[in-house]
Amino acid sequence: MLTYPWTDNPAAGTLIPVAPGVSWLRMPLPFALDHINLWVVEDGDGVALIDTGVATPDTRALWESLFTGPLAGRSVTRVFCTHFHPDHMGLAGWLCDRFGCELWATLGEWTFGMMLSLDQTPEFTERQVDFYRPLGFTPDQLEKVRARRNPYAPRVAALPRRISRLTDDQTLWIGENLWQVIVGRGHSPEHACLYCPALDVLISGDQVLPRISPNISVWPQEPDADPLALFTESLRILRHQVPDSALVLPSHGRPFHGLHARIDDLLAHHADRLHVCEEACADRPHTAMELVPVLFNRALDDHQTYFALGEVLAHLHFLIGQDRIDRLTAEDGTYRYYAVR
């Protein structure tokens, strides 16, 4: 069972202290998931920022209100990004330029974000189309893929051209406290969680969220990946390395206690989704798109459909890796997934 020490969320442009030298703030997101939590950590004469928000005028304006309000007169010493997604790395370049400070991130996250931010070629779009066509997208849906082009680039400011690299099991001082880097995989290539033993605080990013499972998807850049296997193994490692007593600071939802129970819930959730997916494939061969309503029994907008399809594919690839299902190519060129029994 999870417990939540705070019942209220930070109002726009305000900070809530959550541990000695650690404060919580929120930024809006233009999606169904409408917010991201960011963290401000005392760091010598200034503050370190953990994640940044998406690059929108509203987010920039809220940062400006913080710099003239609760953070007035404080310098930003460093910007840490847990991973490359635009709600986390979107304003990293803007903040680093403004304060002349370094971006700290894993090499995999910075490289992936840099690649996506720069590739706005027609070839990028056609690779997306080639990825989604055999999964069961209709011609109308493929036209939306072409119109969508590269959705990442407009949501991030120009990323810093250099970083200070975070690595798994690295320890570093932020202010008066030593923090350990714990790299998780599956949601993104090299997601950096930060754990402070002295404070017993885990900044979990998207790797562990209190109410929803982070999106675990296969994407066009790595079409044969098995991210769910990486994610579940990362959860087991995190459970071993961080005590259950830790205060968890997630990127979405409220800070909570009950890390081990939440990890167990996430593992059980995906085990159930795997079973449902396998049972559907035992009934008859399905395209990945036909399985979206099986795993997501609710209305989805276009943005959510990409995430849902990617997550379906992640479960299918996990099952293929365990020799529980297989894939054939139908006469129309679509992939059909069927149970091996």
TrEMBL record:
Keywords: Hydrolase. The keyword Hydrolase applies. SMART domains: Lactamase_B (SM00849). Residues 35-252 form the Metallo-beta-lactamase domain. It holds the Pfam family B_lactamase-like_C. It comes from the Bacteria. GO terms for molecular function: hydrolase activity. The keyword Ribonucleoprotein does not apply. SUPFAM superfamilies: Metallo-hydrolase/oxidoreductase. This is Glyoxylase-like metal-dependent hydrolase (Beta-lactamase superfamily II). It comes from Novispirillum itersonii (Aquaspirillum itersonii).
